[in-house]
Amino acid sequence: MIDILIVGNGPAGLSAALYGIRAGYSVCIVGKDNGALAKAEKVDNYFAVPGLSGREIVQRGKDQVENLGGKLVTDEVINIKWDGFFKVTAKFAEYNARSVIIATGAARQSAKISGIKELEGRGVSHCAVCDGFFYKDKDVAVLGNGIYALHEANELLHIARSVTVITNGEEPTVSFPEIYKIINVPVKNIKVKDTFMGQMLEGVVFSDGEEIDINGLFIALGSASAVDLARKMGVEIRGNSIAVDGEMKTNISGLYAAGDCTGGMFQVSLAVSEGTKAALSAIAYLRENPVS
Fold first, then answer.
1. What's 70's domain CATH number?
2. How do residues 124-182 score in pLDDT, each as one tens digit?
3. Residues spanned by the domain of 236
4. What is the DSSP string of 101-138?
5. Single residue among 168, 189, 219 that ends a domain in this structure
6. pLDDT tens, residue by residue, 244-278
């Protein structure tokens, strides 16, 4: 059982790890990559380290965490559940933790299909766990080609009548079971129908002229974003960010968020500060809820 599990190894996550370790708790960071900071060629506005590349700053943070005894794991988190403790499911392993800090940044891959955003809540969803119930015994599709899409399809498998995986022209990066119909053709546009509730999703049209009729389309492109992970747990969302208070607490006890995923100005200094506050809150929570 890990005391503090941190999802994301950018500045917010690494900063949080330092405080958790120094407080005497076991800390594990699970991150897919180095985040947006690592793509910065040069950072000149961060205190005391002018001229370093983003990658250098991240690597220094990782080295610091490991030297203090923290654990860094390269993996892709696809789901978080609460079952008396936090169960974090990743592509290659599953982790159990007493507290969790989400610090995966703000990146979210959207579907570049005309009109799809307007149909969110009207047949288009970003969360199978949240909305799958509404499509019981109906035909649905998942838009995506990786482990996140497979996870969403598996969530829908025992609810919907049929589940189709639409890769939008991309080759699958994971092996989908034969029970799913896979369509590799790019999407041309979506079909809508007029109802008393306004326009609703009716189906998908592909570039080769083929069409499928579906009741629901679940977007699962790329990796699960911070908001995707939080939404599955019933965490309050504001706009496209995780809602937190001044101590980086979410509405779920023991779960915190820090960095770009909470909105605001996307700056390294702010991410580090929020990571610190999230860790201090997690430490206080662990002390108030000792292991029996």
1. 3.50.50.60
2. 988 888 788 899 999 999 999 998 899 999 999 999 999 999 999 999 999 999 999 99
3. 2-108+224-288
4. EE---S--PPP--TTTGGGBTTTEES-HHHHGGGGTTS
5. 219
6. 999 999 999 999 999 989 987 778 899 999 999 99
